[in-house]
Amino acid sequence: MLLALADPGWSQASKAAAPEDLNGRVVLVLPFENHTGQKSLDWIGESFPETLNQAFSKAGFLPLTFDDRTYALDHLGLPVNFRPSRATTYRLAQTLDADVVVVGSYSLAEQRLTATAQMLFVKTVRMGAPVMQEGDLSQLLDAEGTMGWQLARSLDPTFTVTQADFIAQMQKPRLDAYENFNRGLVEADRNERMRHLKEAVRLAPAYAPASLALGKAYFAAQEWEQAAATLQHVAKTDPLGQEAAFYFGLASFYSGNYPRAEDAFASIAVQLPLPEVVNNEGVAASRHGKDGAAKFQQAIALDPEDADYHYNLAVAMRRDHEYTAALKEAERAAALRPNDTEASALVKILAKEAGSSSPAVAVSKPTANDEDAQPLERIKRTYNEASFKQAAFALEQMKAARGKGAL
Questions:
Q1: Residue-number span of the structural domain to which 260 is assigned
Q2: How far apart are CA 387 and CA 112, in angstroms?
Q3: Per residue in 181-199, pLDDT tens?
Q4: What is the DSSP code string of 63-124?
Q5: What DSSP assignment string belongs to 291-304?
Q6: Does 62 map to a domain?
Q7: Please, which pLDDT band fits residue 353 given cuts at 50, 70 and 90?
Q8: Are residues 18 and 165 in the same domain?
């Protein structure tokens, strides 16, 4: 047998303790500490969150991602590769509203890996008993998967997926692709990061996390077409499909392919009608001559305190010569964001237009030649990540529940 549990009684003990320890189902897995003495194996530490998160997700928990962790570290003024103390780990958990934090370490002897994990229950500030796995380095993914399955099962006794079935259903790319992917996540140098991620995608083109990471790296570098081409390889049915589609829509928008961008945002909005997504659908539509006003109204209904949605509706209404209604929306945008000089300028323009009955003030739709002179609707480059992921997570849980019902 490849793997062994150091504490056979841990599963039952955790099942008894978990209900009183858990206030929710948000799990943060931190990179495991490298005790091998070989810095070249640091990537293994980053790989544990990637695989363990699969197990927690399948068990109905909401695992926090690399991006979530990066945000929290930045918020606390700490570098991405920072290895937190127990006190800092607790602060990270509080920043991200995590209910459970998984920490661990690994060592290597003659190509045989030994890893140990512990769970911190945030509500009671209690550490769970350690869980140990070991196996050949060549079977790293199976070792991590088994550890993830054991931890998820200990947290939720209703998790009925067998260990064998879970391992069989895991996303398991080639080990060299997995290594390049995890190296790419933590590499500080942009060129090296891109090199590792490109190699990961080349070696495992069907591995969605690598395609998403590379696509987002291209997007950050403003290489729009390369970003779109990479992101479109993430299947819409994949758990990462909605996030990939969002960035695909943005990359398409910035490359000037507005119909493709509109279609991308519309495909997300069918299942996840979040305000950022609906807004972007409207912005993309307006860029190729369609009326996005209804989408901006929908975004406002979802989030009435966002100044950009009111600004966008004002611009759309102005284009349709609805100056009085547009003025109200522009004034609302300026009130929500007093330092928004564009919104204040639009208020002044609309005040004049609303008070004039002369057809000379009529505003035509912008063309390619005068687009820069006209106020334009604003795209949302980012989304409320917590809301987006929680909604996507809930959607995946609904799909999983329907699948179980079909069985």
A1: 174-270
A2: 41
A3: 999 998 889 999 999 999 9
A4: E--HHHHHHHHHHTT--TT----HHHHHHHHHHHT-SEEEEEEEEEETTEEEEEEEEEETTT
A5: --HHHHHHHHHH-T
A6: yes
A7: very high
A8: yes
